[in-house]
Amino acid sequence: MPAFPSSAHNQSGQPSQSAQAPQQQNSPRIERVGPVRILRGGKGWRGIALRLAGGAIADDDRFQVALTAGDGRSVVVAVLDQDDAIAVWRDAGRTSGLPLLLETSDGAITEPYPQLGRVALGAVRIRRRHALLAGRRPRFLTRRKTGRLPERPVVIRGEILS
Question: Which residue intervals are annotated with compositional bias (Low complexity) in the record (predicted)?
């Protein structure tokens, strides 16, 4: 056997990674390298879903945070109490750039905060005042109050001015 085999098999006779179909390489999956989980194929993930854990009545205060794929598969990332679930869910969505999804008990998935790629969509915020006070005061003085005398001025007598 030559030192560098021409076929796409490794030394144990199994197909190497490059011989796998490209469909499997692009499909969403989580790889485990030691204690670390790595998200692969990010384009295939639909979003990060928050749902009730188990579906039992006794577990109403437990939630699952799961990665959902476009084909309906999901991978549970964490099972948390209701106090921590929303914070972890929003943090995972912010760091991964995936949309936040809510999954109801009947399996319907909704997107409460729509986004386009990594950009969250929302109401337009006006950043400038368009000549609101232009005729009255200069812009740099808009936060300052004008000086006014009190109704009854304070008169101090008996001071020596020299």
Answer: 10-28
The distance in angstroms from the start CA to the end CA of the chain is 112
Bridge partners (DSSP) listed for residue 102: 50, 110
pLDDT at 16 over 50: no
Q: Which residues pair with residue 62 across a beta bridge?
A: 81
Query: Distance between CA 65 and CA 103 in Å, rounded?
Result: 10
Residue 96, SS3?
helix
68 in Cβ contact with 49 (< 8 Å) = yes
So where are the chain's domains? 43-120
What is the Cα–Cα distance from 150 to 17, expressed in whole angstroms? Answer: 84
Q: CA-CA distance, 27 to 48, in Å (whole number)? A: 16
Average pLDDT over residues 127-143: 61
Pairing of strands 74-81, 36-40: unpaired
DSSP, res 60? T
Whole-model pTM?
0.50
